[in-house]
Design brief:
single chain; Metallo-beta-lactamase, Chain A; seven-stranded mixed beta sheet
């Protein structure tokens, strides 16, 4: 789970596990959450959605929550959420389901603060990575999501200030630290942050990534990056 926080609102990216607990532990006001973006339908990215909706309701949310996602992700989340029969929670807020495209650099969301675009990655199921462009500062951040190295994510990250890239290992549908560093180098970003780390991650693997892209940081749960 990632959260994009500005002075006015929060945009949540994916919703696995107890997303509300993670928000609160990072000091994010639940009532500031403007929308949710889903990258794909894997359970570690969407399984916490029903619990998150209930906790938002208990925090007093009234307005509908926009949820953006590619068709396969939205279809699954609708089914999982519907299985809990949310209509019996009196006064629970509505969900506005907004289908997004798998085309490269598709516009997902645009407001006064942000332009958010997506491009497809390479995974076992359809997936998109995201690019967040801050209109006020010009800062651009790219999030790979779960993916093997692929040209569409390199293009999405091209010239970004920051690339947040998974490093779950050189296995189908994922990337190693070295592969993530190569994407960062090809895209010409300024900084690389590794997430979704392999449980077998070693210091040598991190060092190998830094040999390719020196400004590489291993990000841990709860990591806060000020832009």
């Amino acid at each position: 789970m990632l959260a994009l926080v500005d002075a006015k609102s929060t945009i949540l990216i994916d919703c696995g596990g107890d997303a509300m607990h993670r928000c609160l532990s990072c000091g994010i006001d639940p009532m500031s959450i403007q929308s949710v973006l889903l990258s794909h339908k894997d359970p570690d990215h969407v399984s916490g959605f029903p619990l998150f909706m209930v906790k938002l309701w208990l925090h007093g949310r009234k307005e509908p929550l926009p949820v953006y996602g590619i068709p396969s992700a939205l279809d699954l989340v609708k089914k999982v959420y519907g299985a809990f029969d949310p209509g019996h929670w009196k006064g629970i807020h509505d969900v506005r389901w907004i289908e997004t495209s798998l085309k490269p650099e598709a516009v997902v969301l645009e407001n006064d603060q942000w332009l958010i675009q997506s491009s497809p990655g390479k995974h076992g199921v359809p997936v998109v990575g995201y690019r967040f462009s801050n209109k006020a500062t010009g800062i651009r951040v790219c999030y790979s999501c779960d993916t093997e190295p692929c040209d569409s994510i390199v293009s999405l990250a091209q010239g970004c200030d920051i690339l947040i890239h998974e490093a779950n290992g050189n296995i189908p549908g994922h990337s190693s630290t070295v592969q993530a560093a190569d994407v960062a180098s090809r895209a010409g970003v300024n900084s690389l942050y590794l997430i979704h780390l392999s449980k077998d991650l070693t210091k040598d693997q991190v060092a190998a990534a830094k040999d390719i892209f020196p400004d590489t940081t291993v990000a841990k749960d709860g990591f806060i990056l000020e832009l």
